[in-house]
Amino acid sequence: MTEQPNVIADLIAEGEDIDRLVADLGEQGWATPTPAPGWTVAHQVAHLAATFRLAALAASNPEAFQGVISRLTPNFSANVDAALAEFLAEPPPVLLSRWRAERAGAEKALAALPPDQMVPWLVRPLPAAVLAMAGMMETFAHGQDIADALGVRREYTDRVGHLVAFAVRTWDFGYLARELPVPEVEFRFELTAPSGKVWCFGPEDSAQRITGPAVDFCLLVTRRRHRDDLGLTASGEIADGWLDIAQAYRGPAGEGRRPGQFAAASR
After folding, report:
1. pTM above 0.85?
2. Phi–psi pair at 71, nearest 5 degrees
3. pLDDT of residue 265
4. Element spanning 106, H or E
5. Could you tell me which CATH number the domain at 7-153 has?
6. Cα torsion angle, 132, 133, 136, 138, sign
């Protein structure tokens, strides 16, 4: 699978989908607990707002971005709490407006760059198009939490291909986050898109293979579903172990989701 085109347009569309979930919520709706322990719908939107603001800064002013990063503490959770605090202090209508503004700023800043231009980021510099794919990952993940909290069944599209490509690129993050040695192997991924297309990555003759629905793969690598509740199959001992630790973000893994937690909900 080659890198999908129109990542910015798809990032915009993904954000608009999540926007529609929260646009008409009252204060009680914004206070709804989500599957992420201790996080409400407002926390999820605040996190997205903070993340997109950082992405806009990285794409438009790398020096200022580096200054922000230099002031972060070694405590990941404390950094997240600090980033969310100013957004959570706002009433829901203002938080919604600020999230929209931060999204638009990041989308504009990334669109202004050549897709292959390197942009500084939290772990390592990324091409602008790949940073947009990381934005798709964040929007998908936190949007899923919002949908789960509100009891909304999402309609997935082939836009998830950007997240698939990003997760394949960052397949080692699950090991790095747990300070485990990264196996010296190449995985083969064969994943079926919502449209029925099959997206393939990695050597065809690899003994370590992951196959199944692309949406399930996205839910796995964002840790929004437990592997037991997904239709993914692993061939090879290393690939099977990877399904237990897969994640497409570099921070702490978090609690993830319990087996059977969403078994009653049809995706």
Report:
1. yes
2. -95, 0
3. 53
4. helix 92-111
5. 1.20.120.450
6. negative
Interatomic CA distance for residues 152 and 166, integer angstroms: 26
* CA separation, residue 40 to residues 3, 32, 128, 261 (Å): 34, 5, 30, 18
Are 110 and 59 in contact, with CB atoms under 8 Å apart?
yes
Are 21 and 148 in contact by the 8 Å Cβ rule? The answer is no
Which of 226, 212, 214 has its CA nearest to residue 254?
A: 226
Residues 135-185 pLDDT 10s: 999 999 999 999 999 999 999 999 999 999 999 999 999 999 999 999 999
Read off the DSSP letter of residue 188: E
pLDDT at 256: 82
What pairing do the DSSP bridges indicate for beta strands 198-201 and 118-119? unpaired
Match domain 161-245 to its CATH number in 3.30.1050, 1.10.150, 3.30.1710, 3.40.50.
Answer: 3.30.1050
